[in-house]
Amino acid sequence: MISNLSITPVVCPVAARLCVAGKFLRQGDIKVRLRGVSYGPFRPNSLDKPFPEAAQISADLEHITVLGFNTLRLYNSPSEFLLAEAQRLGLKLIVGITWTDHVDCLRSEDQRQAALESVRQTVTALRDHPCVVAFLVGNEIEKTLVRWMGPRRVQLFLEGMIAAGRSCAPDHLFSYATYPSTEYLIPRNADFLAVNVYLEQPQGFSNYLQRLQNLAGNKPLLITEFGLDVATHSEAAQAVVRSWFEQIAERNSVAGTVWFSYTDEWFRSGVAVTDWRFGLVDAERKERLSAQQKLPTSMLTTESWLRFSVIVCTYNGVVTLRACLASLQELRYANYEVLVVDDGSRDDIATIVAEFPSVRYLRQDHAGLSVARNFGAAQATGEILAYTDDDCRAEEDWLAELAAGFDDPRWVACGGPNIPPPPRNATEAVVAAAPGAPAHVLLSDVEAEHLPGCNLAIRKAALEAIGGFCSVYRVAGDDVDICWRLRDAGGHLRFVPGAMVWHHRRYTMAAYIRQQRGYGYAEALLMKEHPQRFGPIGGARWRGAIYGDSSAASSPMDGSIFHGPLGNGMFQGIYQNGAGGSLDRLCGVLWVAICLISLGLHLPAVAMLVFSLSVIAALYRAAPLIAVPHTLSRLGKTQLLMLCWLQPIAREWARLIGMITLKTRPSWHPTLSEVFQPTKPKKWALTIGEWAFWSESGTGREALLDKLSGCLKNAQYEIKLDDGWRRYDVETASPDWFALAFLTVTEFHGKGKCLTRVRCMARVRPLGWLLLAPVVLIRCAFFRYAARRLITEAAGQSGLSALK
């Protein structure tokens, strides 16, 4: 049952092109893992290209292939000679696109257009070269600069850069290389998540990769920089780090890695960098100990002491069952069996199963999904029961990834993502993007509170200990119930990002709405057994964060990002639940009831207002769901908006009907905490002035802020510094309803020169704006002059020169 080939639902537009396939990359039918090394930037050569001379390029690239790498990451557009050498040696190229990302590029429309034109020109020039597989439209925009410009604005700008590049080369891959200090800065239309990470401890690196996998969602994760500085540590330390780097990355299902760097030769901002030495070879190309290590072979094994029983329960699933079973024949794992449980189908399931001689066919009278799952478990010979649905197709390393997840007895269940395959038509694209799909719920980056039943592996002994699946769940809800009961029994559930299955949603919008109604009724069933896990109006209470409908970083706004004090946090995380906020209360049956009551009371204006708010709430839900590569037409976007509007109504209505017929209700005193709510801004900010100061000696914002704080105190202002959540550095503490705040950033212009910008803001509570608008405007005008005097005084004390 083992094969080197696999059935894949991905069809690349060009056979030679690298394509995204869920959490992984493929080239045609071949699953590809990028093993790369960075190359450059270099001092310009005799042809004024930022690369070595031709002979050195040939020698370097040949050595790189000898070291086992298959990919180069470049920071500049490659020369024709480098392209030819890369193609000759079979090297793939990830090309970085250069633009002025070290300054506030959003201040000027000319700068924005210049950056977009740089993307278009670079992509157009390289799109026909087969060795170029991906473009990075930026690299590590500095964290305080992102905070200054606004994370949301920067995200939208990067998305525009990717869109501009994709319009020139639609069959290439695009992303932006972020880093831990701006891990929230993830373009939603990127093809993969690219992150530069430098962590010296293997356990810390492994833990952080799990977090990055959750931020990546259903897309591949690439580590686009990782290395160790020999100048700070030693050659031996670098060799040790490299010995575990690739193994941990593959163990955590990373689709590609880039070691930084090939050589110590490094030229940046017009000067040679000699203080840092990250190279596998030094500037004279002498190998270090780390270069002498061979890259490890695959960490995933097809042999294991764990025996899996893959159980597929089906009821009239003839449309998709054959493809499901075909994918299970191609699993790269030796010790498993496949059982199909026919839940009394009217269709001829047995004939389909007979096409696969190694598959065991079991049949029962129609009794529902839970009974079928228990029947399969009773007949299984494996110690691990791996459940999937008849409309799923397993990725070839699915069982190998799950087996690696059971490396500790405390994990009683493991599961991974279920990802919709590329749609075959416009309707499937809309349904695949719609909310409400089966989603995992995570308590941490590793431990889950819930794993969807279409991708759920359970230790047989643990399942038997709690009495198996509950038979009342005939269509849905069984996976939620079993996960809760496994946890109540002391078990732990693990999310394994690489254990991926392709899961078809529904093929029509009507079928999608029926599915959501089924989920709603299942929630009523769950409520009867677990009333304490539901809130007063029936919504399920989760301890963890729900994944699946949108990226965790879909809307990085003020108050949802912990920047660290003064914006200097090394690891800056995003904390939020969704874009809708209080508008979510107008999703579902509630708005319908209010509209009907308003019409009954002859208040059509109120009904229209509530209806309009419900549409706005649907727009908020739809915005983060539309993503490349499933581009939607205008009609498709309208249909998606309609589904976002209808889905909570259908689901909630079915839940209410179930509550009535089952005579159940939620607890008025739920025992579970709400999902974490982010800190929200309590004041509105209005910019009342901006100033810029130049330094030839490298004096930056830290010195300016120190002097500014002193000037504010001398002027009898009480001050408070940023607690890490705000987009200001220092704020006056009184009066409480009106405050003066200052935000700073330093742009580094090379050779020790820098420009520090200061923004002065009036921060006013919303009630203050509504009741005292004229007073607020007068105070803003007064404080602009006072702020300018204070900033100029502080800059003079810091030795900075004001720019006009």
Describe the 3D structure:
The strands form six sheets. This protein has a ten-stranded mixed β-sheet with strand order 16-15-14-17-23-19-24-22-21-26, sandwiched between helices. An eight-stranded parallel β-barrel has the order 4-5-6-7-8-9-10-11, surrounded by five helices. With 804 residues, it is of the alpha/beta class. Mean pLDDT is 85; it is low at 1-15, 549-553, 576-582 and 672-680. Helices cover 36% and strands 20% of the residues. Strand 30 (738-748) and strand 31 (754-764) form a beta hairpin. Helix 6 runs parallel beside helix 7. It is built from 20 helices and 32 strands.
The overall pLDDT, averaged over residues, is: 85
How would you sum up the major sheet?
Answer: 10 strands, mixed
Taking pLDDT < 50 over at least 5 consecutive residues as the criterion, the unreliable ranges are 1-15, 549-553, 576-582, 672-680
End-to-end separation = 74 Å
Give, in spatial order, the strands making up the sheet with the most strands: 16-15-14-17-23-19-24-22-21-26
Which of globular, elongated, flat, extended, rod-shaped describes the shape? globular
Strand % is: 15-25%
Helix amount: 25-40%
The Rg value, from CA coordinates, equals: 29 Å
Oligomer: single chain
Helix count, DSSP H or I runs of 4 or more residues:
20
Query: Strand tally, please?
Result: 32
